[in-house]
Write a structure and sequence with these properties.
heterodimer, A: about 525 residues, mainly alpha, about 40% helix, B: about 1000 residues, mainly beta, 22-stranded antiparallel beta barrel, 5-stranded mixed beta sheet, 10 helices, 51 strands, about 50% strand, globular
Chain lengths: ~525, ~1000
Amino acid sequence: MIYTKKLMLIGVATMTLLSCSKLDEKLNGQLTEAEVAGQGGGGGGADVNALLNSTYISVYGPYSNQDQIFALQQHTTDETIGPTRGPDWDDGGTWRVLHSHQWDANHPYIANVYRDILKTSFSATDLLRFSPNPRQAAEARFLRAFTDFAILDGFDQVPYRENTDDPKEVPKVRKGIEALDFIIAELNEIIPDLSDTTLAFRATKNAARVLLMKCYLNKGAILNRETPSFDNADMDMVISIADQIIAQNRYSLTPKYFDNFAPNNNAISTELIFTLGNRDPAAPGNGLNGNGVMFNYHESLHYFSPVANGGGWNGFTTLSDFYDKFNADDERRETSYPGVTDVYGIKVGMLIGQQLGPGGVQLKDRKGNPLIFQREVNLLETDPIAIELNGIRVVKYVPDYGPQFPTSNDWVFYRYTDVLLMRAEALLRTGRAGEALIPVNLVRARAGTTPLASLTEADMIDELGREFYWEGHRRTDLIRFGKFLEPWQEKAQSDPKNLLFPIPNRSLAANPNLVQNPGY
Amino acid sequence: MILKRILPFLACSILSMLIGLTVFSQQKVISGKVTDKEGNAVPGVSVTAKGSRAGTQSGADGTYSISVANDVNTLVYSSIGFGRQEVSVSGKSTSDVVMEATNQELNTVVVIGYGTARKKDLTGAVGSVSARDFNKGIQTAPDQLIQGKVSGVQVVNNSGQPGGSTTVRIRGASSIRAGNQPLFVLDGVPLDNSSARPGGAGDIGVGDKSQGANPLNFINPNDIASIDVLKDASATAIFGSRGANGVVLITTKKGQNGAPKIEFNASVGVSSVLKKLKVLNATEYRAGLAQYELGVANDGKADVDAFDEITRKGLTQSYNISVGAGNETGRYRLSLGYLDQEGIVRKTDLKKYTANLSGSFRFLDSKRLGLDITILASQALDNQAAISNNSGFRGSLIGQALQWNPTQPLRRPNGSLNVDIGGSVYNPLAASEAYNDLSKVSTILATISPSFKITKDLEYKLIASINYGTGDRKTWIANFINFSDPRQIQRTFDTAGNVINAGGFARLANNETVAQQITNTLNYTNDLTSELNLNAVIGTEYLKYNNRNNDVNAVGFPDVPYPYYDFFSAVDQTQIKHGFYVSPTTELQSYFGRATVNLSDKYLLTATMRADGSSKFGKNNRYGYFPSFAAAWNIGNEEFFKNDFASNLKLRLGWGKTGNQEFPAGASQQRYNVGLGSINRDQLENPDLKWETSTTFNAGIDFAILKNRISGSVDYFNKSTKDILFQKDAPDPVIAGGRKWENLPGEVLNTGVEVSVNANVLNNQDFNWDFGVNATFLKNELKDFGAPLETGEISGQGLSQVRSQLFVSGQPLNVFYLKTYEGIDKDGIGTVPDTKSYVGDPNPNVLLGISTRANYKKFGLEINMNGAFGHQIYNNTANAILTVNNIGINRNTTAAALSAGESLASPIGASTRYLENGNYLKMANATLSYRLGDIRFVRGANIYITGQNLFVITNYSGFDPEVNTDKIFQDLPSFGIEYTPYPSARTITLGVNFSF
């Protein structure tokens, strides 16, 4: 019996010894917080540059993809429409309701924008935990301010976190003017620490200044979106910051408009202030985040349009009323681009009429009929011929035919013409229309068209449209000029609630500090 | 390195075999004949010396001859169906025995967790299937063997792909994110549910999600002796945090007692397409062009059938040979198997080589020390076609074949393939020729299990196993095809502006999985008094799991010889892409125990408890506790019950808690990803993360009536799953993905009734007929869930951002949430109002399995049918590929679409138009066999012809109502959607088996 008992004891002991683990999970291919903090070898701190690059990369997707900020800032305006072409582009009606202002709090793109743009806020705040130097902290805070401004503009409620390592934190929310004041305060604090480099893909003092200008220019609209006001003090701030930038003599209007959007725009443009650098190894993410540029022209062109990477998607177009705002000689509306039109047959700008391919061959659509882009477009296309041809197509970025992917064009966030025209608008709104006319006519001259004789608010909003079409400005500009609710092609008069997007249901459900915007 | 681990095993086992078979002690020989009541010979009766495990079997004529030690006084005769007898042989040298047929059911030994039990002693709900009842024909994996055989168990082949994955659900789906597959245990080794085959190549222009491989492919179904399915918590709680979805215990064949015996079986079969969807032929297409006044621009003047061009009749062969022997000191079995299954889609097939060596030995004079060794080695090679679950408007191979314009030739007059370089219409024949995808998965599962009988009641056993799987996958796409995924293969232009294809793609991928196990158990069985029997087991278990994979791929191959993956040197080296992944290490550490009390064979009580610690759980919830209790009352053994009508009546009640921890490792920690010059936060941590808990109540009745001619059981179950594992939206601002793993307060409730009845309808000298049916009635509901979540992504042109299913309170999981189709208006435009509603349920309400076996003299007929009722299927194939507008854009459609008078511009969104009734009854397999008996040196020869998937009775218009294309959305699983899957096959097989 004792023998047996001894055996049992040994057995039990062996059992417990053979398997005793603390069950701490080893991550293997990833890093824990402690490992991130202790990186940089030899007891140094975290690799903050790597964290900062991630913060930059988080901005690129939401801004350049066709179904995020572009959808919200463009499809809701008179510049862009995403018609349903029979079975194509139905997509659950998501594009139609954006144009007709009939979205609701379940709209997938609205939900994605709210979440994905706020990713940058999280990334920047998390970075601040790892002892960045002043410049790194300033760049992160700029990116946070940049994206927070877009949220403020579209949704009026900007949630923020203070402790990204507290999994139970419920983010507080800044609304309206409170959010704007915070952004302005942040920008003023960080401008001294930002660099002054000429590399447009990094956050620089000038990029921060441009954002500051936008804050002051739109402050009255944020206070009251239905009837925006323009306080003289705010307009003077816009002008004085613009003067700081102009005085540097660093930028000038690029002689050819589309050079700002060419594959090598980082080399030939003289206007770029803040961009997504593509194909530049020094840019964050190694310059490999440029799908958005390619999507930007693919989404409008036809399947048989002569572009690389598989032809267009026969989707979005502009509207004829908007097309008619241009003079016939305005190069911004349509021009040939050397190396593209002469070789492949496709023009840049807004495309109408018979389309050509390489060698001047007349292209056909999928049914074998001539590919002639039409002026008309309907929100719901039902005619089988119209499905292929309707709508004026837009090529804003010059197509890249290089062998590599992504395309080389740098995506443009801020450019110098914006500084000039924001300054002009501020002058106009403080009763100095004559002074405002000068830069406006310089911009028109660059576009190869006739100058204006005088400048009214109606002229100003039209000129902004002509200059910045399809660059993601239109919705903000229309609201500021009080025109966003007016009817236009394929849209009736909208409800005032449409001045703001609804807080997405899934974001509302996750944060009790958010309240739904009025009317939704 | 693996060789180092395996060689000791091999050496050990060979040595043990040699030792075991050469030990003999002082012997005498006893012989005799075993007959039944009518005087007929009873073959296959096991004859052993009492107290010993070694013995012999009665031969075909009922005679036997056994060599036993001189001091042996009693021989034990036992056989399934004839019970067990002990006969005294002291002083005798012959012993003839008469055996009486008994109800085989009750004495069958059933494998339960960490032990075995006789069926009549079970207190939980267990379904048992032995080898002779398995589904016949060519089966590649064990779960197909029990399809339709066990009540409460639903086995769905997700597509017709050879070796493709299956969905197995026991008593309904209880989980949203944490996986619904049961735990599979092979001879005491818990398997994790992953195949070592590397994933697909991502989006090459035809979608990026391909159907996975069945993780059980490495097991040879021929090696399996029985499969036991543990269904309720009182049976599965001993598996703790892995038992919530049920447990399937697979037991392989071991060597039988007696002289070495070789068993051989061979079969050859032909597979063809079960159902071909009817699309227009060339004449009908031309008529359609005329009907819609489209002119002849898209009439290619040819007449082709694209679907026929890419499918074929597939030849399948399967050969298995096994040799086994045993005596009182040891048994062994070695089996080798080869399967070569050609798929019905061209250039797809599965080849499988398996080798299984198992040995079981006893050492020391007292035979107290035992050693079991198993080595299972297998290699599966499969070729796949470009078929994905989420291809967009270009379609994947099946979609391309269905929508190919039948008037366009597939080949040009000069014989080359008609490929539209730079275009977006794919030639399915070219796609089939250009795409090549070969995977090779090698698995070695080695188990060593020593045991020691400390006293006659107490036994200690150790199981140590290592399961090593490695997969590699080679893919290449020729450059003459116009796959044009924007991220990889590009169309480019030469200097003259003409389109040239800078195409061609190759990829090499590797995957490695390692699972290690150490389980210790201490088992005690004793009759405490003459009425009271106690069976108890306590144990510990430690499991560790690791997985890593990597791949390399590139585009832009020049005209080098095929295959391109041998020519990575020929591409721009800076354009070669690499991917790497290594999973966090998962460890599971558990302590468990069970006690079963048997009072006079009338009252049975079982209690189990398991404490599970997992490295996956958050650090505040490392250990979970899972108890269960069950009681059974054998009314059939009570004095007051004895009657002529019913011979057995048993009442069972059980309650228990089990868990589910199938969420990804690392889900509870704060993690950072490292990229090129970038580090970003990848996850919000949750230190409170824990398992899902399922609480099940089960009440059952087992009965046998009419002299055991009819037996069966009825069970009622109520299974409630709480702490639902889920990646919930965290409040913004948040990281990429925006979610955090949490246990939600909602509940998934599955209730139902299982009925299974087996009847021996006729039992004569010449004619024997058995009939069995099992039915399950299920209801599934999600409760207290919070904001609804979408899944069931619908793919196709104009169908992006469309989801068809919801997880929402008050509805079953994956309820269909769609717009309602209201027909075509006078202009031929489809009317679909914008409001969505709950319109269907992909979870069947009734599962049915029917088996019948009849024997007439030497002929045998066996038929198995299974079916599911009360559910809907979404036909994404029809929604995306077979719409009327196709005829206007150079694509094919169906006659039904044309005859409706619908306009070509009618919007074709997702709606109830494509939601179909999914009821079906399938003739799963039917076998006609002829027993040749003994011919010269060959024993027990049998020839048979089997038909699988012979026909399906259904109104569903797609390929096969048994379908489950993976339409996952944001990691939420879908169910019951079909999207251009690999078509199902009908197979006719001719086979022979015999032994000698």
